[in-house]
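Sat 14:20. Reprocessing the chain from the morning session after the first attempt stalled halfway. Input below, unchanged.
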Amino acid sequence: MRDLRGGLVRTTLGCLLLAVALTGCSEKQEASTTLPSATASETTPELPPLGPADFPVPDEARTKDAAGAEAFLRYYLELSDRQQEALDGQPLRELGPDCLECSRIAKAFDDVEAEGHRYEGGQLSLNDVAEPLLGDEEATIAFTVRQEAVHLVDLAGNTVDQGLPVQPSLSSGITLVWSNAQQGWLVKSMTLG
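Finished this time. Tokens:
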């Protein structure tokens, strides 16, 4: 009798467990109404590197339109201030390989570094920017810029060259050329003041 009762208990227990398991599976589940995003599987083509690795040209400055050209101008002036402090002209040359003024400024930074001097002041800030004039592969932008007073000092902080007083409004311009290889703007020519 013991075997029969044990078998009956096991059978009953097995049936209860099976019923619980089946009940869990038969509960009504809502179907998902969303599909995986298409962007999750698509990839955006990578832009080739442009500008210094630690201060690359931003994506908004790499569009072949008026907004991209103006964003590049703003970036390039910020880069110029940054490189004046770092005393490294190479990034200016790379982004303006055919620009004489860019080469002149880059050389000045390199020369100051070689002499063991540094600049104090001289930061640039845009006063106003005209709407860029776009051609097929070029953009020309007129702008005015403020240049803070600047002078040259040695490593001890002694003035080596009195430099220039503040320039509140330098009439300036830049011509950019679109590079298909770089997928971005490069400086063709620039004037400050």
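The longest strand covers residues 167-179.
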